[in-house]
Amino acid sequence: MNPKSVIKLLSYVMLFLAFLMLLPLFIARHYGEEDAYMAFLTTLSLLVFFALLIILYLRGEEGANKLSIKDSYIFVTLTWLLIAFFGSIPYYMTEVSMSFAESFFETMSGFTTTGATAIPNIDEKPLSILFWRNMTNWIGGMGIIVLFVALLPAVGVKGSALIGAETVGPTKDKLTPQIRLTAVSLWLIYLALTLIQIILLILGGLNLFDAATIAFGTIAAAGVAPRSGSIAAYNSHYVEWVCTIFMFVSGTNFALFFKMLQGKWRRVFKDGEFRLYLELTIVFSLLVSINLFKSGIASLSDSIRLGVFHVVSFITTTGFTSTNYSAWPMFSQIVLFVLLFIGGCSGSAGGGIKVIRVKVLYLMGTNAMVKRIHPNAVTNIKVGDNAISQETCSSIAGFIGMYLITLFIGTMVISLSGRDFLTCFTGVLLTLGNNGVGIGTLGTTECFDQFSSFYLWAFSFLMLVGRLELFTVYSLFTRRFWAK
Fold this sequence. Notes:
With about 475 residues, this protein is an all-alpha fold. The protein contains 23 helices and two strands. It has helices at about 5-20, 20-30, 35-55, 70-85, 90-95, 100-110, 125-140, 145-150, 160-165, 180-205, 210-220, 235-250, 255-260, 265-270, 270-295, 300-315, 330-340, 355-375, 390-415, 420-430, 455-465, 470-475, 480; strands spanning about 380-385, 385-390. α4 (about 70-85) packs across α9 (about 160-165) and α6 (about 100-110) crosses α7.
């Protein structure tokens, strides 16, 4: 391992984060928010000071081109901890959060696109802080390391290891021969989709600030809005449908958009995971819409609008809401609860287990039944036209097993807080699955400020391992990882 190379790269991340803070710094100055301005200026100065100090101390080191797989895992994990630490300082300095644990929780929630919050009454907070809150969502949606690789050619030498340690899902699409060009392509698509949604929201009557922050929360599948009422606060069916479309987009593998731009439309609709994602969205939207209409909750048109909006919001783990769905029939609530587990496609901004893992796990089960009936049968697993290797199947089974173990142990730890089972289980499920809204009061009418600092640190850890898909973080706690 090369600790000096890791530390040097972390200094570049600090400079990069300082650059990103220039925008909320400008917004704070524009709106005359002096406390927020000083908070961002102080944080920015600290980032630049420590980064330059490290760079000067380690000058002459070769840097990223010596990163091993182990170094990549360490670097990616430390990067997320580092940006969460410094990103939380503006919250703490402006007293938006009462404790540093709340500030760290809020920032980790932002960068991991979880969307959970420990800040009540966000309408009363400085606009620059709210912008930073949504900006962290947007940066984390595609991945800080992917952006880092895209902007620093020096990292591109071993960029595949870094991206592999951060990107989500069992498949890693290489769109171009060079990993840096792949990172650039993904971020350009991500940026283009964000700009399109901002324009559409402005055409729907939203001001630039609201349009930008909502687009950040949508494309990143984070579900963070600058108003306490989420999307319901805008009272606009047009805004709901625009967000519905782009939430669905955020749950799609972004590599498919690259194929679309190349004119390979057929390959997109032949993608097995995308087809299942589309089918699940349509089927569950119909079921919830019918259930709402039959229960007299809303008219037929409103039932369809509400059903589609919330099904897409939950399956993509975005978490936007346009009504109090906790008053819905139990069937619809259970459907939404199930969707929390599934999540979006691999290579998307969404959280959860991922559609492809659910599909492969189901096929593994059916194959096991076939083998019991016909022991000599030769079976294979295919998702669309792609055959899934035995190694990938084992990895998926291991991931889901570790996911469930983490969910149950996390619930046991949070239960020490004295809260009821539903609150504890929902809190762990939301943070581990990077979904800020769920079933029950937590995430709907109540936020995470009801928990003490110890439990907020625990939730922050769950968000981190959920965003980096368990193995990247858990590997650091094994003896084999540190063995020579």
